[in-house]
Structure prediction request, 321 residues.
Amino acid sequence: MLKRIAVLTSGGDAPGMNAAVRAVVRKGIYHGLKINGIKRGFWGLINRELQPMELGSVADIIHRGGTVLHTARCPEFLQKEGQEKAINFLRDSKIDGVIIIGGGGSFKGAKVLEKAGFATVGVPATIDNDIPFTDYCIGFDTAVNTVTDAINKVRDTATSHERTFVIEVMGRNTGHIALAAGLSGGAESILVPEVPFDLNEVCGRLQRGAQRGKLHSVILVAEGAGSAMHVGEEIEKICGMDVRVILLGHLQRGGTPTAFDRILASRMGGSAVSIMLEGKSALVTCYSGDSGIKEVSYEQVFSQSKEFSWEDYNLASILAI
Ligand code: F6P
Prediction:
């Protein structure tokens, strides 16, 4: 019978991770489980960093960005030696199951623990929103709001100086942040890795805008699509425009989570505990706008990439004309 579970946050932090940790701890304790927090993700499993969690351990964190458990990228866990150390630690600590809050790489780590006989559940949290079968990952909504706010501010100065701004946003291999923030911020062009682009076309669009009196523009570049610096330099060369480039960087990962992310994280964290209590494992708590939280197997999640919204992309292009 399930008695003792661990919770960890892994990979890049995402606003709302704390709300998910809180949900796991409080719901777990409510159902009589002993909950342990693992510090710094998989690194903490290898280095035996365990912290017993009580109701009060997660007080006053629902509104805080980052993760109180800390997080890390952990290349050591990719090696057999690191995996064995982690597994031995879990066995020594008499942990029956582990809830892993993180992105796709973290779920691959979850699968290793699963194979070693532990119950595991993945809770998708990454601002990149690149996990398939879930409309939203924890942190994405907050990051999109952060970028939208940055676009609003840039617009003020872009309009005043009649300049073109190129803004680079996160998205290691995907353009979900760029697309959502570009749509909500009214960007003139959105460059994403999913869609090949031609800078001559981007310039043609800018020049057509200039001809009808539009003298300021905002272009969003997802980091996975290339360097904003390069895009800015090329636009200056091709169009002879005065361009400024901004890299938003890690500020997109911080900040107080939106209400949406807190609710999503609370639901996903709560569902992760329910899944374990039902004796199930190797599942990810995904979210669909139509049906709420649904359980999706690791195999399904690993089998494909997240769908890119062509509908939104085409709409954003039409609206930016
Ligand atoms: O967590 C996702 C992400 O923010 C990506 O958008 C970005 O490419 C990467 O993490 C940056 O990672 P790090 O913080 O390790 O430099």
Q: What stands out?
A: The chain has a mean pLDDT of 97.
